[in-house]
């Protein structure tokens, strides 16, 4: 089944940044100096000021039943609510192949006078449910396979509510790898940081993965099955008095793109991700959630 929605914001060209050192410090200062317009930055700042981060919640009985029945196939992408200034359609299809289930996402360009706005799709279930223990798992992981990237795609994680017109990594409690310049962002509306020279081009058929490690709170990415360096910002663990948060997969897009999203219902290219220790449905049990395990 396909879902359609529209949205609208304008984007500018990207710029350079400093190199990645292996440890990324989250930015606590809003600096409107990235790829987006100043209007987009101001709107996002106002959105975050007016909408506090949601507290972690127990999954509903219907969500738990869905996970029991479908495993990792229970995870999908949430369709944002349209607003009056939204223009361009997005298509999300639930697909199956011989190897398993995946989501196929198609984004389209606006007419030239309207520009190509960004959007951010979040998973409809948290990939890290904040009130649940790790249940012996090593982490969680998902993949995006590129069919066409005539525009721009970003992959990462975020908490709700997240401004739907902003890439992951630009705003609070979010991290993102942006595939136009391969810079990595963590709560950073600036230019981000260079990540790794092992990631230098994106073509049709390439797969980018995003994972989170429970042992140290780091996020990492993969490229066609090869694990890339950990990003050690430890943004989500409930340490030092921080409240537990539900964390969602976050995929940004702009312009004409086609890509597939797998949450584990078909085999991952990163072979270690196919171990049960990395499967999302292994984190959520069928009983009341245990205390969070660091």
UniProtKB/TrEMBL annotation:
> Which residues are in the B30.2/SPRY domain?
59-268
Report the SUPFAM superfamilies cross-referenced here. Answer: Concanavalin A-like lectins/glucanases
Q: Which InterPro entries match?
A: B30.2/SPRY (IPR001870), B30.2/SPRY_sf (IPR043136), ConA-like_dom_sf (IPR013320), SPRY_dom (IPR003877), Ubq-SigPath_Reg (IPR050618)
Pfam families registered for this protein in UniProt: SPRY
Q: What is this protein called?
A: B30.2/SPRY domain-containing protein
- Organism of origin is Wolfiporia cocos (strain MD-104) (Brown rot fungus)
């Amino acid at each position: 089944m396909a879902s359609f929605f529209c949205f609208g914001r304008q984007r500018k060209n990207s710029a350079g940044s400093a190199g990645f050192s292996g440890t990324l410090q989250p930015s606590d200062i809003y600096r409107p100096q990235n790829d987006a317009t100043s209007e987009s930055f101001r709107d996002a700042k106002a959105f975050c000021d007016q909408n506090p981060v949601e507290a972690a919640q127990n999954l509903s009985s219907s969500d738990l039943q869905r996970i029991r029945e479908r495993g990792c196939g229970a995870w999908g992408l949430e369709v944002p609510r349209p607003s009056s200034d939204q223009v361009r359609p997005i298509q999300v299809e639930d697909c199956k192949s011989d190897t398993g289930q995946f989501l196929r996402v198609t984004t389209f360009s606006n007419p030239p006078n309207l520009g190509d706005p960004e959007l951010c799709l979040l998973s409809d279930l948290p990939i890290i449910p904040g009130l649940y223990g790790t249940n012996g798992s090593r982490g969680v992981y998902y993949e995006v396979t590129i069919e066409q990237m005539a525009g721009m795609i970003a992959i990462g994680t975020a908490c709700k509510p997240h401004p739907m017109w902003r890439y992951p990594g630009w705003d609070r409690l979010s991290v993102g790898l942006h595939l136009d310049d391969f810079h990595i962002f963590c709560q950073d509306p600036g230019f981000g940081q260079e990540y790794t020279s092992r990631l230098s081009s994106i073509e049709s058929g390439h797969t980018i993965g995003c994972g989170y490690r429970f042992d140290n709170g780091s996020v990492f990415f993969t490229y066609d099955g090869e694990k890339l360096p950990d990003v050690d910002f430890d943004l989500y663990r409930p340490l030092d008095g921080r409240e537990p948060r539900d964390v969602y997969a976050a995929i940004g897009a702009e312009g004409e793109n086609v890509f597939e999203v797998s949450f584990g219902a078909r085999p991952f290219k990163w072979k270690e991700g196919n171990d049960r220790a990395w499967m999302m449905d292994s984190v959520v049990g069928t009983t009341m959630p245990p205390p969070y395990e660091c």
